[in-house]
Amino acid sequence: MAPEQRRSTFRPCIDLHEGQVKQIVGGTLSDCNEEGLKTNFIATQPPEYFAGKYRDNSLEGGHVIKLGPRNDEAARRALAEWRDHLQIGGGITADNAREWLDAGASKIIVTSYLFPGGNFDLERLQTISSLVGKEKLVVDVSCRRRGDKWLVAMNKWQDITTTEVNKENLDMLAQYCNEFLIHAADVEGLCQGIDEELVKKLGEWVTIPTTYAGGAKSISDLETVNRLSGGRVDLTYGSSLDIFGGIISFDELVKANKQDH
């Protein structure tokens, strides 16, 4: 009997900005223009509330992202609520990676550290992979579209690197990590639909677990991602969920996710 094909699953998130759980339009984050920041939602509950909710619903593989400074304490509280089950990203380097694993992160997520000056540094990837172990490392290859290509975007998605998201580069990165996180920064937080072309390409390219985030606006998007990627890419929902001020019922999504599996 042939093994059952893997299906795409829902991956939760906790995005932190200035110590609060927020949902932000990805393309509006900026170090030099705080006025331009567009926020969809600011939670009244603390980050550990959401971590507990994900734990109670057995939602594995979620990520906590620190968007800028002054988020460390909030991130530690979220991780402590469900130790060894949530990934942590945002400002992670070889100097602090072990510290975050000790704080309860299941894996660490890196982007900007790998791209000093916007150029990919293989030595840095090898260093941090050796330090924490390949199985504890997620590489965030969040990107923006430029013409018919997707280029890795770093530093809160403000800076476009020279590195293209394609099969050759993903295969190279996969030698040193065991998961990818990919925010489609152009559609992140807009709730106007996923980048279907990118999801389809990722389904063709990736060889390790991969989570796509950006633009999910309905429960049916989970099935769309499953179909387009052949079940090889998982989907993060953020701004569109009712727990973040959106219209999709978190409980209904959890139920649909369980039925699919």
How is this structure best described in words?
The chain is α/β, with parallel strands linked by helices and 261 residues long. Helices cover 29% and strands 25% of the residues. It has 8 helices and 14 strands. The protein has an 11-stranded mixed beta sheet with strand order 1-14-13-12-8-7-6-5-2-3-4. α7 links the parallel β13 (210-213) and β14 (233-236). α1 runs parallel beside α2 (72-81). The longest helix is centred in the middle third of the chain and has 11 residues, at 122-132. It is globular and about 45 Å long. It starts with 9 loop residues before the first strand and ends with a helix.
What are the secondary-structure elements, in order, as H or E? EEEEHEHEHEHEEEEHEHEHEH
Classify the beta-strand content into a percent band.
15-25%
Distance between the termini: 18 Å
Spatial extent as radius of gyration? 17 Å
| Category from helices, strands and their pairing | alpha/beta
Spans with pLDDT under 50 lasting ≥5 residues? none
Q: Please report the number of helical segments.
A: 8
The shape, in one word, is: globular
The largest pleated sheet is described as: 11 strands, mixed
In which order are the strands of the major sheet placed?
Answer: 1-14-13-12-8-7-6-5-2-3-4
Q: In total, how many beta strands?
A: 14
The overall average pLDDT, rounded, is: 91
Helix content: 25-40%
